[in-house]
From TrEMBL:
The keyword Lipid biosynthesis does not apply. The chain crosses the membrane at residues 7-27, 34-54, 74-98. The keyword RNA-binding does not apply. One of its GO terms (biological process) is electron transport coupled proton transport. It is a multi-pass membrane protein. This is Uncharacterized protein. It is found in: Membrane. Keywords: Membrane, Transmembrane, Transmembrane helix. One of its GO terms (molecular function) is NADH dehydrogenase activity. InterPro entries: NU5C-like. It comes from marine metagenome. One of its GO terms (cellular component) is membrane.
Length: 99
């Protein structure tokens, strides 16, 4: 099973966010033993995906150093603010360090 690098990068970003929202609205403080494992699992998967992206950089794959634009956030005449991720070797290195 092969995923595009764009979907992997978005998964690195959204997995911890989804686990945060799930734990915020689903579990009460101190009442659930499931909140911790869900959070640790999502951060662990994000870390593994970050290592995969870093390995792609080390292998010299030229797919990186591109701008991944997801959608236009604000559009007023010729003024356009887009939401996306700039993917380069520094970004992928910081993904591993921060995760």
């Amino acid at each position: 099973m092969s995923f595009s690098i764009e979907s992997i990068i978005w998964a690195i970003f959204f997995l911890p966010v989804i686990s945060f929202v799930l734990c915020l609205f689903k579990f009460k403080v101190g009442e659930s033993r499931l909140a911790g494992p869900i959070t640790v699992f999502s951060i662990g998967v994000s870390f593994i995906l970050s290592l995969y992206a870093f390995a792609k950089i080390l292998s010299g794959t030229p797919v990186f150093s591109e701008r991944l634009t997801s959608f236009s956030w604000i559009v007023i005449d010729s003024f356009d603010v887009t939401f996306g991720i700039i993917l380069d070797p520094l970004t992928v290195s910081m993904l591993v360090v921060v995760t």
